[in-house]
């Protein structure tokens, strides 16, 4: 069957429609948070703030920028490992994230920053919008190379919506703590993406098998993504934590977990390979599992050695996943997971949820101090009588809610994406930039076909 | 005509001369700002500052570093898209920026930070020096691949000088607000560069046509530049705004404008191409126009939806510019604009100036608060009776002044650069690293000539 | 002699052993600093801190992240210039740094943050751990391509230990100031690495001569490393300086020194080459010497023009070192220095120590203010009677101690690394990823052998 991948009318239509909708909705709903509004001086006096430096901007902006880099360069370049899909990896990630953050500002705004009919946005909203889009970037990893940009924009629209609902249930209804998003971002995003790719199963994908690998320099480009994710993850997990010790602690715990994770990833990458050589796929991905798995617990008193243990385990789980579980998922469950997000986000996300629940349940006044305990878990207002062990239970519930939302939502959205007129590529054109991009000549006539001159440029 | 591109005596001479001059001038004039001086503790007590955190360093240093990355990695890598000019793009950008920031510290210092015969520099001066050099990087984009490093150093010397004069007229004489530099940086830098490239018109440039394109990996390198510019632009536009809400607001507005711009760039890139495929040139450049166009207005109460609208329009204008205007400029006006700065900086810069003028003119006490209005536009001292609508008029005047300075200055500097002994390359050697760099062998014997074995390495 | 480079049991064993040891030691010793502990609210009240923003996190976290990028992306990518060793450069740097920061937290903690049997860690410890690992990354540069990952992990273990001892002697016993580590990081790290590579001398290394060069794109990857090191060096030199003016000043001085250094590097790169063309090796490395050489003095009142002079000289010294000294070191002293760390770190590090000693000795109350002088050199407690000139003497002593520790330590560790079962590559397999990594096919069959089809893939 010949697929129609001609984008000329469909893609512009969706982009412009989506963006006009954003403008209208922003016009109706979005205004500045008082800390970003020109009236702030008055506000400041009322709050008895002595200095401009107490504007939330200075608490969170450096972390925001780090998170921003993770979403656009981190995820974007991590996915450039495919030899012929670098433009799609970086470019489509750019497109969906740029749309997603706008829609997330609205969706999350209605749930969390809605006052007198207006959504008031400040730097924390920007971070949360980036977080929300992070879950879409994760899902994108599962279907990388197999969808059209129109499909990706539709996916983003729905996934951001469901993300916001799930986040609202967890944070506002269950009063769950999840500052680094082990549950809301990673568990939800990964199982959502895995369900979508399951629905979009392509039985004949081996037709583009030759393009699913990397080339030398594409692996180096991917390492740019890996390192930025790895380095800035402490900012990710601490970006929306409480001011002061909580942000400080979240950064330290994440730093420790990630460091430990690198060692076990290297160990198992070598151990599980007959020739004992390291596999770039593991180094690019499994080294990050430690950051995922302390997403919930990092701001708690997980302690540095606790973080090392979590990172230690996740490096192993993730690498083993790449070697043994991934082929099994593809052959038996028909889950074609291009980037291996099951290993990097799904399993470590679940572990992160569990670590968070256990750490919360184990919290004591001795460890946190009376005030510290209340502040860490926000045991105030309606929740002032909640105990750590009850909190642990709610945290655990949050995992299941996220999982359920991801599976149900992924199934529905996957079905929507199967609609025939969305321009997805044929099996033999998957993982191929040439379908949606003007590709410079060298790629077609040179590099790629060098070692097999019988291959001809693919025409879409 | 054989060109003499031998740099051995000329380039070292200019570098050393320029640098010795810097040392002498710094020795005579440059000292630390009180906030960076060891006497600060005493200063602090006099100012009743209660904490070290109120040092301006902590308000601005994270933004400074982001701006720094934009200048050196952002602009540098954005220009690596040319297949054989990566060293020149990154390397010459590095050279001219490193010299330019020193000269800018002096020039801007004499105009703005001169006290008792000394220029006192702090973190804000570093940001402004980077800003000033940004305008040179923009101009460099127009002449990329067609000039010698000696020409670039001369260009930098003059352009920084003129930038500082223009900035002084706008900021100090006209009392114009332009924190993100739509006028001072983008309009000035772009029209300056376009005028220079017009003067340096090469009628036979098609002789190096084959090198004006990209190869697959050079396009990915360029995306590193694009993304860092895109991600850090909120820092750029907020870096020198007033402490507190103004910085906060500028970052939010820029974030919104840029997000919107990506969607319309993608839409029009696909729409304007017969095959409906996306063009990397548009993604690399037009997505950034939204940041340029809120350079003046971002710190004002432009509002998030206002920013979305600006970004929306600029994505369209910029992409249309690449497709229709650029060939016209080259064939009819003889403006050979290597990187398309007319589309990314010139037109969006003008739009940015207009947006700023309109936003200023529309400012009211209701929207800003009484105090907020005074603080936002600095209606104090000599300007305490200026009204928003008058301010709008002055803002508009700033656009014309910048334009006039750019055209006149560019014409003069272009003429200077035509002097015959500056080592510019022959037409057939343009866009070719081999002229000024030791290039590793693979490039000459391998990659580049692969698809046409009849080509021979160019010897200069 | 056939070398056994099979890593399957050895590498996992070392990784797991090292990491389990870390977990146990962290469990026994490492806890949160009060500023990162949940009891902080109480602490804060006792210290009369009025705002959360006075948590040390906000003073240092942005600088920490910049330093983090320098260690992992900066050093990692700087070393990717080799055409076939990109995976090893980025990947092994990642591995050794991830282990090293953990061990450094312990070693430095015992010396500097040990209270009541516990090491209390906060953001400053994270920075110092990164600093310590920086010295290992430097040493790695000398032996790049010639060692196994097992050897690198052993090297890291010992070098971090010795670093901490040396640092303790300098900072605590001699009361030396060295915030940017000209002595503790660069002098120590470089001479340590040079001694190790001397001990590991390979007389037949010319067998892998063809792989010691770069290819076009590997030089661009290396420029990513260069630029991040260059841009973030102001953060590096100011990261652990005193709050307020000292951090501010250190950033400005470093900015100036680096800018100046670029100009003289370009000048001498062109001057020392017959054809007058620029050499990427110089641009990638010598431009950074200015940052190394103000590592000690940047936080002092070195002044901007003083910094320019230091950068000016170091650009020259470093470039001349690459052209004349490096071949001499290899042929006469048998020091095979892959990355030229002698030119980038060793000589500029020594210069930096001297500059620091002179600047300290020249300090006066007039320049610093009474309070400023005490605060800048911490002339309190046991040191309240120390004069600037005495301080200068101790600073000079610090250089010699660092040098002695480096030479003695390097000799011992070099000898340890010669043990035969550590899996180092044969001479003809040096600078070759294929020995320790799964390398995608293109590299073996395509790119690399393109210009000489008689070459065959190397099998280890």
TrEMBL record, chains A, B, C:
<dbReference type="GO" id="GO:0042802">
    <property type="term" value="F:identical protein binding"/>
</dbReference>
<keyword id="KW-0924">Ammonia transport</keyword>
<keyword id="KW-0325">Glycoprotein</keyword>
<dbReference type="GO" id="GO:0006885">
    <property type="term" value="P:regulation of pH"/>
</dbReference>
<dbReference type="GO" id="GO:0097272">
    <property type="term" value="P:ammonium homeostasis"/>
</dbReference>
<dbReference type="Pfam" id="PF00909">
    <property type="entry name" value="Ammonium_transp"/>
</dbReference>
<keyword id="KW-0812">Transmembrane</keyword>
<keyword id="KW-1003">Cell membrane</keyword>
<dbReference type="GO" id="GO:0016324">
    <property type="term" value="C:apical plasma membrane"/>
</dbReference>
<dbReference type="GO" id="GO:0008519">
    <property type="term" value="F:ammonium channel activity"/>
</dbReference>
<dbReference type="InterPro" id="IPR024041">
    <property type="entry name" value="NH4_transpt_AmtB-like_dom"/>
</dbReference>
<dbReference type="GO" id="GO:0030506">
    <property type="term" value="F:ankyrin binding"/>
</dbReference>
<comment type="similarity">
    <text>Belongs to the ammonium transporter (TC 2.A.49) family. Rh subfamily.</text>
</comment>
<keyword id="KW-1133">Transmembrane helix</keyword>
<dbReference type="InterPro" id="IPR029020">
    <property type="entry name" value="Ammonium/urea_transptr"/>
</dbReference>
<dbReference type="GO" id="GO:0070634">
    <property type="term" value="P:transepithelial ammonium transport"/>
</dbReference>
<comment type="subunit">
    <text>Homotrimer.</text>
</comment>
<keyword id="KW-0813">Transport</keyword>
<dbReference type="GO" id="GO:0035379">
    <property type="term" value="F:carbon dioxide transmembrane transporter activity"/>
</dbReference>
<dbReference type="InterPro" id="IPR002229">
    <property type="entry name" value="RhesusRHD"/>
</dbReference>
<dbReference type="GO" id="GO:0006873">
    <property type="term" value="P:intracellular monoatomic ion homeostasis"/>
</dbReference>
<protein>
    <submittedName>
        <fullName>Rh family C glycoprotein</fullName>
    </submittedName>
</protein>
<keyword id="KW-0472">Membrane</keyword>
<dbReference type="GO" id="GO:0016323">
    <property type="term" value="C:basolateral plasma membrane"/>
</dbReference>
């Amino acid at each position: 069957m010949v697929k129609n991948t001609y984008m000329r009318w469909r893609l512009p239509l969706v982009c412009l429609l989506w963006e006009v909708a954003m403008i209208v909705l922003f016009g109706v709903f979005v205004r500045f948070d008082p800390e970003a509004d020109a009236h702030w001086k008055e506000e400041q006096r009322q709050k008895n703030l002595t200095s401009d430096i107490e504007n939330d901007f200075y608490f969170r902006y450096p972390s925001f920028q780090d998170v921003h880099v993770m979403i656009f360069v981190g995820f974007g370049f991590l996915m450039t490992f495919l030899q012929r899909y670098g433009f799609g990896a970086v470019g489509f990630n750019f497109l969906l994230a740029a749309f997603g953050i706008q829609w997330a500002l609205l969706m999350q705004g209605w749930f969390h920053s809605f006052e007198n009919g207006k959504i008031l946005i400040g730097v924390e909203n920007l971070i949360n919008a980036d977080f929300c889009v992070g879950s879409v970037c994760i899902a994108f990893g599962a279907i990388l190379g197999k969808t059209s940009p129109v499909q990706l924009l539709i996916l983003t629209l729905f996934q951001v919506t469901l993300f916001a609902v799930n986040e609202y249930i967890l944070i506002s209804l269950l009063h769950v703590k999840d500052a680094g998003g082990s549950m809301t971002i990673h568990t939800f995003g990964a199982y959502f993406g895995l369900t979508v790719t399951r629905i979009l199963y392509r039985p004949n994908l081996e037709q583009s098998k030759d393009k699913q690998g990397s080339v030398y320099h594409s692996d180096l480009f991917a390492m740019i993504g890996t390192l930025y994710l790895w380095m800035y993850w402490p900012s990710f997990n601490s970006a929306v934590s409480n001011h002061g010790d909580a942000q400080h602690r979240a950064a330290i715990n994440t730093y420790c977990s990630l460091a430990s994770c690198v060692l076990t990833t290297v160990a198992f990458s070598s151990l599980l390979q007959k020739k004992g050589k390291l596999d770039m796929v593991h180094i690019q991905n499994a080294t990050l599992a430690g950051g995922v798995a302390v997403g919930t617990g990092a701001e708690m008193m997980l302690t540095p050695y606790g973080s090392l243990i979590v990172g230690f385990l996740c490096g192993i789980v993730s690498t083993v996943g790449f070697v043994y579980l991934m082929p099994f998922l593809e052959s038996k469950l028909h889950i074609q997971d291009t980037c291996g997000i099951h290993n990097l986000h799904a399993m470590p996300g679940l572990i992160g949820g569990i670590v968070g629940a256990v750490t919360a349940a184990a919290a004591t006044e001795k460890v946190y101090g009376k005030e510290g305990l209340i502040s860490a878990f926000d045991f105030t207002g309606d929740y002032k009588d909640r105990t750590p062990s009850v909190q642990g239970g709610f945290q655990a519930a949050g995992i299941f809610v996220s999982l359920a939302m991801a599976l149900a939502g992924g199934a529905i959205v996957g079905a929507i994406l199967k609609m025939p007129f969305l321009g997805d590529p044929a099996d033999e054109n998957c993982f191929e930039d040439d379908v949606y991009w003007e590709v410079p000549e060298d790629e077609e006539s040179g590099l790629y076909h060098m070692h097999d001159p019988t291959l001809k440029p693919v025409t879409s």
